[in-house]
Amino acid sequence: MLDHLVYSTPDLAGTVDELRERGVDLVPGGPHDGLGTRNFIGPLGGSAYLEVVGPDPDQPAPARPRPFRIDELTVPTLVTWAVATTDIDTTVARARAAGHDAGVPFGMARRRPDGVLISWRIAFPVTDWDGLAPVLIDWGDAPHPSGGLPGGTRLESLRATHPDPGGVSAALAVVGAELAVTAGEPGLVAELSTPAGRVVLR
């Protein structure tokens, strides 16, 4: 089940302004302390949401590269997607037994603008198939970020291309994810409908 899309950018403020002008209603998410990043989030319909993530100017540069390719990007990019699971350890073990290393789950947290600290567990796939193999996320008892988001933006379609669509599809199947994958250069494409019109993220 789609949890969220990850749209990375080297210029968080600029990208948020641009998306808002195009009709995507984004609200502050919060900083990821120690990673040098912060995010804004917006609705995609249902319990899915869009995460726009980039460098946090209020944090020092981290010792390690920022996640989601932020430090290597020159333009905003739809880098990956996240799939929700209620038992991340079992999902990871099942995937590994089937030949896909979905990563090692670890804890993360961020403080929302209202002061509430939310935490979750996440696993980044070792072989991510150019961002098409999803990140796994388990919110546990934490309030889901989609709760209380403004309406108006919906995800109309999500599709992918890759030189090895069969390999990608196999990696998706073992974590219970579904995504249309066709042959082509690696990439994710999301089409959104907004009050201002259609928005395509790549």
UniProtKB/TrEMBL annotation:
<feature type="domain" description="Glyoxalase-like">
    <location>
        <begin position="2"/>
        <end position="173"/>
    </location>
</feature>
<dbReference type="Pfam" id="PF13468">
    <property type="entry name" value="Glyoxalase_3"/>
</dbReference>
<protein>
    <submittedName>
        <fullName>VOC family protein</fullName>
    </submittedName>
</protein>
<dbReference type="InterPro" id="IPR025870">
    <property type="entry name" value="Glyoxalase-like_dom"/>
</dbReference>
<dbReference type="InterPro" id="IPR029068">
    <property type="entry name" value="Glyas_Bleomycin-R_OHBP_Dase"/>
</dbReference>
